[in-house]
Amino acid sequence: MAKSSILVIDDEDLMREYVEESLLRAGHDVTAVSGGEEGVGAMAKRAYDLVVTDLKMTPMDGIEVVKHTLSDHPGTRCIVMTAYGTIETAVQAMKDGADDYILKPFTPDELELAVERAIQRRRCAEENDYLRAVDNQDYDFDAMVGESAAMKDVYAQIKKIAASRSTVLIRGESGTGKELVARAMHYQGPRAQQPFIKVNCAALSAGLLESELFGHEKGAFTGAHERKIGRFELADTGTLLLDEVSEIPRELQPKLLRALQEREIDRVGGTTSIPVDTRIIATSNRDLEEAIETGDFREDLFFRLNVVPIELPPLRQRKEDIPQLMDHFLEHFARENGRQGLKFDAGVRKQLQVYDWPGNVRELQNAIERAVVLSGSPRITASDFSFLSASQRSPRNGGKAKVRAGMTVAQMEKELILRTLESCGDNRTRAAEVLDISVRTLRNKLKEYREEAKSS
């Protein structure tokens, strides 16, 4: 586990030195000061994971320190040290927000146990904050579905790899289930009871992504009002999924490479390196070798990520799995929408097996959900999937491409992007999946087209 930064406050020299030495031996980053006011000053200069403070001090006592910490540094936990005769005061300190109290005299082991409990509560609170923040994200189902030879090979690879701590790179087209494989790998391995944390590398700018991955200290940049714990630290002892790792900005790649090589990270604005025991799984739907050729992706980072590769097949290459996937999704969405007993009409399975599913399993999932919601009969018929063939045509041109001799590649790319976006009802995420590009790339292209229109 990553070492914790701890502020020790006690006006008795011997006790302060005893606590400081005990915590240093346990591997923590310790700062020791001789009074409450000095402690407040120390917290103003840097953030701490934990404050261990004596109760009986003048002029600022431990309860005042606890109140100040909770008010001005809400992410920091507090432990109060007290003599037997002031237990009632210690209980009051806990009512005021302290995590725990420890009776003097105490052994180093007793101190470390109290510290571990407080730090664990802090980690749980941070993980809960993270999970609440991403609770509205759409995750695929927990179970992997498919009995084709290609999927059986994937299952076998997961079983082999899950027990290791090696970095894994999962590659495949959008919608093939790369995150599902990453989750299966985590929950079948020895870290199953530890955090599984995800970050979408394509969804954030370089500055925001750096803060999300590595965290930042208070005051590191404008708007950094409190210390932020990054995803690497949240995933300590567990697994960090770097989704769409190919989209990490070039300027941030050296810092990620160092974190992978050294197994330690530096918060933005921090002055000390923080060791982390984090298992890395990365996904990509891009040709990373091509990205290396164009200079968009570092070759040494690719080698560090590609220790154990897994390639996921597109749905068109395992169509024998489509009937099982259809039943799986139908059962789920029928139950979710209160339509238990809903069935497929004869011929629907053959219809869906003929379709090539450019959006892969995710597109099939969305198609089944749409049919369940819109079907007005107790059976889903072929007409409930008429939108599949229509979605491959642009309503503006009757399905005929506006590609003509003399067009540049850039013009054809623009036409393809705009037609695909229209066919997806202006849903950028869906259009990016069909085009097999990142949402950020699509957003940049649309911005480029708008600027062209303004200047013309």
Written account of the structure:
The protein is α/β, with parallel strands linked by helices and 456 residues long. Helices cover 46% and strands 12% of the residues. The chain has a five-stranded parallel sheet, with helices on both faces. Strands 7-8-11-6-12 form a five-stranded parallel sheet. α1 links the parallel β1 and β2. α2 runs parallel beside α3, α10 crosses α12 and α18 crosses α19. The longest helix is centred in the first third of the chain and has 26 residues. The chain is elongated.
Could you give a quick summary of the protein structure above?
The chain contains 19 helices and 14 strands. It has 456 residues and is α/β, with parallel strands linked by helices.
Keywords:
single chain, 456 residues, alpha/beta, Rossmann fold, Helicase, Ruva Protein, domain 3, five-stranded parallel beta sheet, 14 strands, 12% strand, elongated
